[in-house]
Structures are given as C-alpha cells and as structure tokens.
Amino acid sequence: GAEHLIELGHHRIVYLDGGRAPGAAERLRGCRRAADAAGVTLEVRSGGLTEREGAAAATAMLAESELPTAVFAFNDRCALGVLDVLIRAGVPVPQRVSVLGFDDSPLAGLAHVGLTTVRQDALGLAASAVQRLAGRLDDPDGPCGVVDVVREPSLVVRGSTGAPEASACGNGSRK
C-alpha cells in the first residue's frame, strides 16, 4: 500500500492507524518500513475502524494549513469516511489527495467510490484456519500453540490514487 503511494511520487503521506485492532501493529510497521526505505515522510495519526473515525481524521486535516498528498487508512471503512469529507469539501481525489484503504470491502469496488485498496487473501486465511482446526480435531493432544499465518496481500488499484499534482508537492495550497 505505502509502496504504491511512494511509487506514484507522494512524499507526504498520512497513515491513519487502527489502534489496537488485529493486524494494526503489523500494518503500521510495514508502512514505516516502506517510508523509511524511500526517505518519505510518514505521519501517523489516530484513525480507527469506522467511517466516522475516518471522517473525523479528515476534518482535522482540513483545518490545517497544508493537506498531505496521500492518506493511507487502516481499513476501507475508515478510508470511505476520509473520501466523503474530502469530496464534500471540494478537495479533488486523487488529484490533490490520494486515498488508499485496506481490505477490498464490497463498497470499495462500487463505481462511484472506486477506492484503491489492499486485498487480503481471505480464502487463503480461512483455508489455513480450517486446516489448523482439522489438525486439532485429528490430534487433540498435539501442539496447540499460537501460530501466525501470513498471506501476501495484493493491491487493487482503482480511482482514488494517482500521482500528486505539481502544485500539491511544494506550495502548501489546499486545492
């Protein structure tokens, strides 16, 4: 996700964190790692899991003198709240601010939303969970420790991300 924004040329990215939600620490670490490797400013802010929390974060950004060139939200719901506030305020997305979500929820793919997002391998994760459960049922006395299952996510590019405008990169203008 962050790599996509960096490849597009974004240098000031706000990451809206998921707090204590499952996977939040790992997503934040990945974003920081990508930003550090590219020498890009990553500003981490409290985001949340809902549209309302994303909207609150976007409203706070609008009150500042300079908007970021991109916002990467913890999940699609939070990103949808960001999109709603930016569009209602007349901020062109993605021309002025790109918005990226995570989860590839059904709403993200709607034509009037077109949210770029990171898709998790939900079927692969479910298959791993079923396999683990079947193993426990077959061998109830076998090892039962916690196992981290990591599946490679994939980027789904839609209309909410693009290269930053030249004017958005240097003069701090809001539109």
In words, what does this structure look like?
The protein is an alpha/beta fold and about 180 residues long. About 40% of the residues lie in helices and about 15% in strands. It is built from 6 helices and 6 strands, in the order αβαβαβαββαβα. It has helices at about 1-10, 25-40, 50-60, 75-90, 120-140, 165-170, and strands spanning about 10-15, 40-45, 70-75, 100, 115-120, 155. The chain has a 6-stranded mixed β-sheet with strand order 2-1-3-4-5-6, sandwiched between helices. α3 crosses α4 (about 75-90).
Summarize the structure.
By secondary structure, the protein is an alpha/beta fold. The protein has six helices and six strands; from the N terminus they run αβαβαβαββαβα. Helix 3 packs across helix 4.
Main traits of this protein?
single chain; 175 residues; alpha/beta; six-stranded mixed sheet; 6 helices; 6 strands; 16% strand; disordered C terminus
Average pLDDT confidence is 85
What's the number of extended β-strand segments? 6
Helix segment count?
Answer: 6
Rg: 18 Å
Strand order of the largest sheet: 2-1-3-4-5-6
Largest sheet: 6 strands, mixed
What are the low-pLDDT stretches, counting only 5+ consecutive residues below 50? 169-175
Helicity, in percent? Answer: 25-40%
Helix and strand sequence: HEHEHEHEEHEH
Structural class: alpha/beta
Tell me the distance between the termini.
24 Å
Shape: elongated
Range of strand content: 15-25%
Write the layout of secondary structure elements.
Elements: H1 2-8, E1 12-17, H2 24-38, E2 41-46, H3 51-62, E3 70-73, H4 76-88, E4 98-102, E5 116-119, H5 122-138, E6 154-156, H6 166-170
Helix pairs in contact: 3-4
